[in-house]
What does this fold into?
Amino acid sequence: MRITHWGIAVSVLSNALLNRGGSVTHVTLGWIVMALLVLRLLWGLVGPDEARFSAFPPNPLAALAHLRELVTGRVRDYPSHNPAGALMAYAFWATLLVVTATGLVMTGGATPMQVANDKAAVASGDWSALIREGGEEDESELSDAAKEVHEVAANLLLILAALHVAGVFVESRAMRRNLVAPMVLGERKK
It folds into this structure.
């Protein structure tokens, strides 16, 4: 679970802040995110009890109640995600699915190796590598729409990440317990 968490976090931040969209690195990190997301979703079905989706179902009313308790200083301990954290996890996964799907549409499902080969062909003067068979007008409209949705969803991911970090900080302070350490070191101290 920690590998998927930190792998996705580093990949998303790297793609947002350190490289250009459409670059081989950007596409490679996108494929890594897709693989990690699939792994985490599978782990949510077959992993240990605290990692399973049944341990933290999305419940907006419970999340609001938890936030109210947090404001009043009465925080409860949860064996897995608290209700607000659960909603954040589901929001992340849904947004990552949108970003990944739109990225695949934008690249035509090209693997990082295909993108690298296309870029190398264009750099050598062979622009024919960019020609794809099929209905160009329909593909162009779909690609344009995917690009817009991809950009909005990617920005939403960054907003969710900022809210997540703030939530972890507030919850750690309220519980007087470091919530980051178990996600880095593994064992949760009771």
In short: The helical segments are 2-17, 24-46, 60-72, 83-107, 112-123, 136-175, 181-185. The chain has seven helices and no strands. The radius of gyration is 20 Å.
